[in-house]
Design goal:
14 strands, six-stranded mixed sheet, alpha/beta, 403 residues
Length: 403
């Protein structure tokens, strides 16, 4: 028997009718032009708690018995699942304890507490948190709400697929982020069982935390050592057993995306669609930028979340601008004489460059006595303009180093 059926997802939708928001589907002109056909954005970043996680968390907790809810629930999360569990538990009248890693984004911690959960910091990684949550469950009798590897959670996330079919009946490809696999497993069940097997489903993993490709190649869930990635929401070291089974059966491809593609996707969402999206939430758009050959139009790219720390947002946007050739960080050697810096800045002004920041260093062991070095943060109009700037400065005899 199927572990999650279309009827399970329809029943989950009834549970969520007055809980989750049917999020909008927005047409993206810039992505449509890039792909060569209609592309739409499914805006789960506008969902309650700022991500899709409330869907699965609520369905899971709502289906607990009264005795189970009386013992409370416990979860481990870096942020979005924490908020989903906290809100769902408060709506259903049970206590929630959430284990979050030390250094978790402050807005996510604050939101989780505001929804009524107790937050505990057992260590620096999500694995530390999951271990602590399991111990808490055994010690206190609280029910562990897994972020992805449970049929009720998968069914809740699958309600997004039903909405996509209603909003875009002729959809041919849906692409979205994959961490543990709960989101795209549920969406795939809804699409393949409710819309037809010809609908293509593509998962996108951050290249630095991509456990599914080796797992699919090996025929079983494989644990990997994840590397640091800006897409912390999908940084999962091992697929779930249930989600691996569903991904293997129903998802057509799982592709990986680079940090550069993720940051450029986030920048595109902000600039062109006016949507604030977190890095993990932009992975589907990153897949379109990097793997457009893998999709058939009309395409729906799922924006899975929008909970991003403003400090991180500033860093990621700068990263995206650099990747698009619109942000340069240069070190430039100058003769240490009056007027040298003014001359350099005048050259940049003539080239139409916006100088964002300048640091002028005149005394350092690496510099000759007659030398100075300038570190500059520059805003340009794109890759061609950046290359023009670098070429002109080198023609003028400036020694440049890209930082």
């Amino acid at each position: 028997m199927d572990p999650v059926t279309l009827d399970d997802i329809r029943a989950a939708r009834e549970l969520l009718r007055d809980v989750s928001v049917p999020t909008p589907l927005m047409h993206s002109r810039v992505l449509s032009e890039a792909i060569g056909g209609p592309v739409y954005l499914k805006c789960e970043n506008l969902q309650r708690t700022g991500s899709f996680k409330i869907r699965g968390a609520y369905v899971r907790i709502a289906r607990l018995s009264e005795a189970e809810r009386a013992r409370g629930v416990v979860a481990a999360s870096a942020g979005n699942h924490a908020q989903g569990v906290a809100l769902a538990a408060s709506m259903l009248g049970c206590k929630a304890t959430v284990y979050m890693p030390v250094g978790a984004p402050l807005p996510k911690v604050a939101a989780t507490r505001a929804y009524g959960a107790e937050v505990v910091f057992p260590g620096p990684t999500v694995d530390d948190c999951l271990h602590a949550a399991q111990e808490h469950s055994e010690r206190e009798g609280a029910v562990l709400i897994h972020p992805f590897d449970h049929p009720d959670v998968v069914a809740g996330q699958g309600t997004i697929g039903l909405e996509i079919l209603e909003q875009c009946p002729d959809v041919r490809t849906v692409v979205g982020a994959v961490g543990g696999g709960g989101l795209m497993s549920g969406v795939a069940v809804a699409l393949k069982r409710g819309g037809g097997p010809d609908v293509k489903v593509v998962g996108a993993q951050a290249k630095r935390a991509a456990a599914f490709p080796p797992s699919l190649a090996g025929g079983r869930p494989v644990r990997i050592e994840v590397q640091p990635t800006m897409a912390d929401g999908i940084s999962v070291g091992r697929p779930g057993d249930l989600t691996f089974e569903l991904v293997t059966e129903l998802i057509d491809a799982v592709v990986t995306v680079t940090e550069e593609s993720i940051s450029q996707a986030l920048l595109l969402c902000l600039e062109r669609a006016k949507l604030v999206v977190e890095p993990a939430g932009a992975a589907g758009v990153a897949a379109l930028l990097e793997h457009r050959y893998a999709v058939r139009t009309p395409v729906v790219a799922l924006l899975s979340g929008g909970n991003i720390d403003p400090v991180l947002l500033a860093k990621v946007l700068r990263h995206g601008l650099a990747g698009a050739g619109r942000y340069l960080v240069l070190r430039c050697r100058l003769n240490d004489r009056p007027g040298a810096l003014v001359t350099l800045l005048s050259e940049l002004a003539e080239l139409g460059v916006n100088v964002l920041d300048v640091m002028h260093e005149r005394v350092a062991a690496r510099l000759h006595v007659e030398e100075a070095e300038v570190l500059m943060h520059l805003e340009t109009r794109g890759t061609e303009h950046s290359e023009e700037v670098l070429g002109r400065l080198r023609e003028k005899g400036y020694a440049l180093t890209l930082s």
